[in-house]
Amino acid sequence: MLKLLRPAVTRILTPLGRALARRGISPNVVTAVGTLGTVVAALFFYPRGQLFPGTVVITIFVLADLLDGVMARMAGQGSLWGAFLDSTLDRVGDAGIFSGLVIWFMVDGQQVLAGVALFCLVAGALVSYIKARAEGIGLKCDVGLVERPERLVVGLVSTGLGGLGVPYVLPVGLWLLAVASAVTVVQRLLHVRRQAVSAASRTPR
Question: Following CA atoms 174, 179, 180, 181 in sequence, which dihedral angle do they give, to the nearest 10 degrees?
């Protein structure tokens, strides 16, 4: 669903990306600013229990993850360094979001949800690492129930609605995200294992 929505979001962001490019702002700068803004907003708002305003600000900065790609394609500035930087800073942004939630739950005395949020952070990083490691050894790993866009949508929507006082939506969203992330880890491990076993069976002894 999110992949289907990406072209529409890209069309919306294109005028802004064109304006920034005319001012000499590079896609990598947009990536870095977006990540910095995400982390600062998450660690400022969430530990204070300001879940809805924090989510609104974070969402604005998360859009930079699409904006930098739009700018790179328009300016023909796509590069290996840019792709590496984008993927690396994605992990930093995710860490900031879920760390802010963990701190809030601990302050609020909700240790179980703090553990669930921490699990979501670790599992999300593991999902991304498995794919990167698989591609590093020449295998493909594009399978899985939830990738980063889905994790962000579920996490931010449930957090924002929880901040508006909608009952149960935040714990339910985090538990669903934890289960879906765990399933994705298993899916990717099995997918990589099948490829590795198949490659080994074709290798002459």
Answer: 90
